[in-house]
C-alpha cells in the first residue's frame, strides 16, 4: 500500500524554488526534488536546474528547497545548495545541501540528518506498481515587485504502473534509461521520485511527457489529408537510476543503494 511508505517519501521530497527574472528575482517554483542520503545529497530533473544554454544555472546558491505550509507544519526551507553532477544522456542532476548551515531551520530541530529515500537499482518490469509524490501545479504571485510575493504549493500523490520498460534509447550496455508510466505527470512533478509501491524505494525520477500525434480521420486539411491532433500528456516518461554511470557515482559518494 502507498500509505505504508508515503510519510517517509513526503518528508524527503520538496519543491525547488529558483530565482525568476519575471518575478523580480524572487525564487518561484521550478520543479520537485528529493533527498537520497542523510548528509544532504539530493536529485532532481536536470532540465529543472539548467539555463537556456543547457548548463547548470549559476544562481543555484540563491535557490530554496521548500515544503508546504499549514497550521501545524511551518514552511520548511533549506538553502546553501552546491552544484554536483549532471549525468550525460539522462535527465538526472545530483546536488547537495549543507546540513550544518541549515541546522537553524525549525524543521531540523532535534535532527542530526536529512530525511531521505533509498535509491534502488532493481529493474522494474511492465505492470509493476509505482507512485509519485511532488509539487505540480504550483503557482506564485507578486504583491510588491522586488520585495513581496506569495507562493502556492500543490503537493500531489499519483499512482501508476510501469506501462513499458522500453522507450527510445532505452536499451544498451548501461541498462534502461527510461520507463514509461500509464499516467502523465504534471508540470512541477519534474524531478520528483518514482517509488516502488511494495518497497518504498526510488527507482527513477519524473522527467517528461510522451506526446502522441493522432490523425483525425474526420478532419481534413485543404488537400484532403487527415489532420493530426497532438495529445501532450497521455503517458509519463521517467529517468531510471538503473544506469552504470549513475550507480557508480552514487556509490563513490557513499550514498545508500538498494539492489
UniProtKB/TrEMBL annotation:
This protein's record includes keyword Hydrolase: yes
UniProt keyword annotations, A-Z: Hydrolase, Protease
GO molecular function (one): peptidase activity
InterPro entries associated with the record: Peptidase_S1_PA (IPR009003)
Top-level taxon in the UniProt lineage: Archaea
Signal peptide: none
Pfam families, A to Z: Trypsin_2
Any single GO BP term: proteolysis
Keyword Cytoplasm: no
Protein name (database record): S1-C subfamily serine protease
